[in-house]
Amino acid sequence: MALDAALELKEILAQYDLGELVDLEKNERGFVNTAFAIDTVQNGEHRRFFLRKYKRGIKEEELQFEHSLIDHLVETGACPAARIYRTRLGESYFHHFEEPEDTEGVFYTIFDFLPGEDRYTWVDPVLTERELAESAVVLGRFHNAVSDLAPRGRRAEPKIIELLPVIAATWSACPGKSKGTVFDDCVLENLALVGKNIQDTRSRLNEPAARRLPELVIHCDYHPGNLKFTGEQVTALFDFDWSKIDLRLFDVALALWYFCTSWQGPEDGRFRLDWASVFLHAYQDYLHEETGAGPLSPDEVRYLPILINASNLYVLNWTILDFYAKDVDPEEYLVFLKHNVNFTHWFEDPANRQALEALAASLLS
């Protein structure tokens, strides 16, 4: 065990009745929070948990939102979500102040360690057809489960329609923040292309019909890296800390973007319509058979292509914010940026747009 981390986590575990820490393993996959698999022993019994140390700056009301959502999913059994353990004081999180002068503090939560294989990340996932379909059904189960949920607290991030003007301003401000790297060169080369794409997307989503699309609690980070698999079955769904109330269609579109956009060499950024067809029809077929959120409506189907594009912009926004806020490797983030830009080129091709619209329309036949 790393001594500093062990001392830190022992202090956190003292707030729970979960035994004594005997081992830990840091999860290296995340970009936002810090997480560990922790092993404890209590009365001779060995147990494993998942401990998350949230990023600084998260608001308590955001944790309340996330945790009330997870509690609901666990209670209903709708999705394979990890149970949250309560502290000795009955709280779903522990608020720790690391230094006497620390007025902000850090939040910790301990979850069940769910079974299954961490088979993919959000980068370059290539799923089998069965895995795609199973993932789509779990998303449908999630949407059904939350269709009437009114969670406590709230997520601070605006809804996607309100976020697009912020994304536009963030993108246009990039040249003024230049670090003089290959990442910045790519931004400058594509400043006009992406700027126009954002403007066109805002225009479509400001239409009255778009503003009437149904809203519910969305996962907002539904990608293969947030799922575990046993065989081709999904056995765990996690990372609900980006969840918020927004368009149901945005959750579906963002999932499609993550699952179905290729990262493969010259194919990078190409949206795989065949993969998307498997995912969409599995999602739609499941919701036709179940009560709750219901299948995508004709209006949702009509706006699906533009919401998939908005999903690319949503991830692009994370890419540029993270790059300019941190001391990161420009070459690593250039891969992410080029992926976003390549998708934009794909989407701006009229033939591709027409094919995507035809795929969406097939859901109604």
Secondary structure layout:
Layout: H1 3-13, E1 20-27, E2 34-42, E3 45-53, H2 60-76, E4 94-96, E5 106-112, H3 129-146, H4 160-172, H5 182-189, H6 191-205, H7 208-211, E6 215-218, E7 227-230, E8 233-237, E9 244-247, H8 248-260, H9 273-289, H10 298-325, H11 330-348, H12 350-361
Antiparallel strand pairs: 1-2, 2-3, 3-5, 4-5, 6-9, 7-8
Describe what this molecule looks like in 3D.
- The protein is of the alpha+beta class.
- Helix content is 48%, strand content 15%.
- It is built from 12 helices and 9 strands.
- The chain has a 5-stranded antiparallel β-sheet with strand order 1-2-3-5-4, covered by helices on one side.
- The model has no long low-confidence stretch (mean pLDDT 95).
How would you describe this structure in keywords?
alpha+beta, Phosphorylase Kinase, domain 1, Aminoglycoside 3'-phosphotransferase, Chain: A, domain 2, 2 domains, five-stranded antiparallel beta sheet, two-stranded antiparallel sheet, globular
Summed up, what is this model?
The chain is α+β, with helices and mostly antiparallel strands. It is 48% helix and 15% strand. The strands form three sheets. Strands 1-2-3-5-4 form a five-stranded antiparallel sheet, with helices on one face.
